[in-house]
Amino acid sequence: MEKESLFQRIRNLPLVSAKLLEGLFAGNYRSVFRGPGLEFDEVREYSEGDDVRNIDWNVSSRMGSPYAKTFREERELVLSLVFDVSASLDQGVGDISKRDMAMILGAIFAFAAVHNNDRVGGVFFSDRIEKWVPPSKGRKHVASLIEDMENLKPRGAGSELGLALKTVYESLKSRGICVVFSDFRTATGWNEMTLLARKHDVIAVRISDPGDNVLPLKGSLVLQDPERGHSLLAGGVSPAFRSAYGDFWDTQDVVFRRECRRRRIQVLSVDTSDDPVAKVLAFFKTRRRVS
Asked: What pTM value is reported for the model?
């Protein structure tokens, strides 16, 4: 997908997202996540047909008869979009960087939520919190958030995923949805991911590029870590080195997916050559079947 086509998609996103919701979710947007959240309402006398698991034994013992807790559906969800803006997201062999793809995917999620009158917030991180946007409603708010995605100039180059997830965990006071957009080329953040996933619905949007795991077929190459600046001399035509390089990143992918499964975090994998709308549609169809 060419870059001009990407930004045309962004300009059309309010229409695209509304059509996506109406055609796929059919008013059942929230069931695509973990179902409606419940919050405590009151305690009342137990009556036949009540779930015995909701009996409040402390109140029942004081009153001398059984009392049950009642719950009500939460009226809104909070969608937290977590954007990795570290230097590795600016890399790529095509016209679109991984950061460009994160931007349009984030816009799709944001318009989907605002279409359902939910609040949307954002966290932009590198090796520090670059910007935090408190959750709010409305198309103007989403348009401002998209502008932040496009225009933010990060001060840091590294990637501290754990810090970003801790920020979201501390800011979300009630059940919410957290979508993380990153290439996840970091070994940090799993402890914070565990805590977040215990309380909230977490989706890991892993963005890749065709050049991520394959070396250019050239002679001597200097591989440089865009976040730390470390360099490594490599043999681009060496079959052994090329195989070891590919095997390393394949192993990292296996580890990443395994760790996400352990935490019941679903993964949406998107390449910079993919159609982002098509990938989101396919992902939500899958979530709807298994929810």
From this structure: 0.76
